[in-house]
Every structure is written in C-alpha cells, then in structure tokens.
Amino acid sequence: MTPLSILYQDEWLVAIDKPSGLLVHRSEIDRHETQFAIQLLRDQIGRRVYPLHRLDKPTSGVLLFALDSDTAKTCGESWESGVDKTYLAIVRGAPAEEGTIDKPLKEPWDRLGDRNVSKDKPEQPAVTDYRRLATCELPYAVDRYPTARYSLVRVHPQTGRRHQIRRHFKSLSHPLIGDTSYGKSVHNRFFAEQFGVQRLLLHAVEMRLPHPHSGEPLTICAPLTGEVLQLLESLDWLNSIPLEWRKF
User: Fold this and answer.
1) Do 155 and 205 form a contact (C-beta atoms < 8 A)?
2) Fold for domain 5-235?
3) pTM here?
C-alpha cells in the first residue's frame, strides 16, 4: 500500500490524510478487513500511536493521533470543547444557505470498534452546523425530476456521534453522495457513471485545536486532491473553497 500522507508531526502528535476506504481500527463494519490506519501508521513511523478521534471508513481527511498515552489522556479530557473540525460534503439537492441540525442520535452498536457501546444505549445530543458553498443544476433526470441539483456544503459538527454528518443530512432529505448506508443509490450511480467517482463525498478538510502541551493554536489541513478535486473542477466549484483546501 502507498505510504500514508503525513500532514503534521511533532514530539507528541501525528496527523495523516486518511484515504477513503481505510478503517481506523478493527470494526464490525468489515470484520474481514486486514489493513487499519493504526497499524499502517505505527509501522510507517516506527512508534506506537493512539487515535484521538474517528473517521468513518469511507470518509477521508485529517486523522489525528497521539504518540504517547499521557498526551492521549490530555487530549481526551478536553477534546470535545477545544477542537473545531471542518468537513466538506456534496449532498443531493439544495439545503438552506446555512443552518444547524439539532437531532439526538443513538450510537450504532459495534462490538469490535467500541466495546463500551451498549445495544441499549439511549440517544445522545448531536448538533451539526453547516453552510452551503455552491449549488448546481444538471440537465439529467436522475430521480423523478427532469434535472438534478447538488450542493457543496461546509460542515462543522459540534458533537462527535458516529455517522453524525451522514445521518443528520439524511434527516434533512439531503443525503451525501456516495453514501451506501444513508444515501440514495440512483444519485450514487449517477456520480459513478458521469464523473467516475464511487466513494463517499465527505472529507475532513481542517482541524483546529490548542496544542495539548504548548497551548498554542494548531491548524492541520488536508487539501482536496485527486478525483474529488477534479469533481469540484468539473462542477465549477473550485472558487467556492479557499486555496489552501485544494492541492493539484
């Protein structure tokens, strides 16, 4: 496998640009999978690593690890309140220009990925802010309408529930493109056939946090590359995102 792209590394932290399709760790999602970000990164840098958060298997972008257990504990104690995560997503239709999705979610049970999650665990608060960056209307009858609309949205989850962004946008009837669990297959097939893109169109583009040891602001960016960047170019959406979020 191609070496993981390291976005940031110091004495205490290391961040990678996780590719779509790579699990962070073992999970019931795919019990036959043999490659995981934890093991690949450990072997690549020759050090034990401690994941500080999760990204779904089909989601790409910034994934942060601690390089020692004390740093992992320090980050864990202040993670929710001190970290700002920004995602880019392509969704079906045209959601409101901006909004907040405040909808509690029940944590999916995963015996291997999170042994602390009970099947009977109640719903937990889940809040997602978003802003629509661009919209297009394509002259194709993908679903029941003569044309098809899609939007590029910038997403800021305030909480970190599993599949939160995907489930929240489904609740608005604006599912993410390429989402085989919560999306619509006709739109997924359209993007595969029309643009050659067969992945979930969700990318963790930026993370901001205070450094756990110095307290200084730290910004880690995973610019869009490859097929997703080409897709934005095809849809004439490149100017809708900052230059630092794209890498040709």
Assistant:
1) no
2) Pseudouridine synthase (3.30.2350)
3) 0.93
